[in-house]
Structure formats: C-alpha cells, structure tokens
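Quick start: what a row looks like.
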Amino acid sequence: MEFWLKLCRPDADVELAVKQIRSHFDDNDVMTDVLFYAHPEYEYQWIVREDFYTDFVLRLFRHKLLTSVHWEE
C-alpha cells in the first residue's frame, strides 16, 4: 500500500507528526514495515507492508494527518 502527502507550504506540525510516525516504525525490529521517502516541494511518500497497514493508518489518525477513511469494494 502506498500513501502520498503533499503540502502546499511548509508546516512544522505536519513535519513533526511525520517524524514521530517514522520514529515509531523505526523503533521496531522490522526493517520493511514502512518505507519513508521525503521528496522535494513538501511531498512525502510511505510504502506500507500489508501487515502494518492498520497500525500505520491509526498512527496517521493519532497525529491528525487523516480525518476519515473510506473503502470502496
């Protein structure tokens, strides 16, 4: 699963949240749970292993980077 976040302008709160989420996943022993990439122009990319998807989405909610989720079948 792949997630992208693009900011219109720098935002210190969002950057802090991104760092805290990354730190959470960096602290475990699984190297391939979530791959983090920072791109130019305030753009972030996360590639999330399927078995870590729920934890990752919950972290996004916890840090207020997501406000809702909708699945389509």
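That is the whole record. The radius of gyration is 12 Å. The first helix runs from residue 12 to 26.
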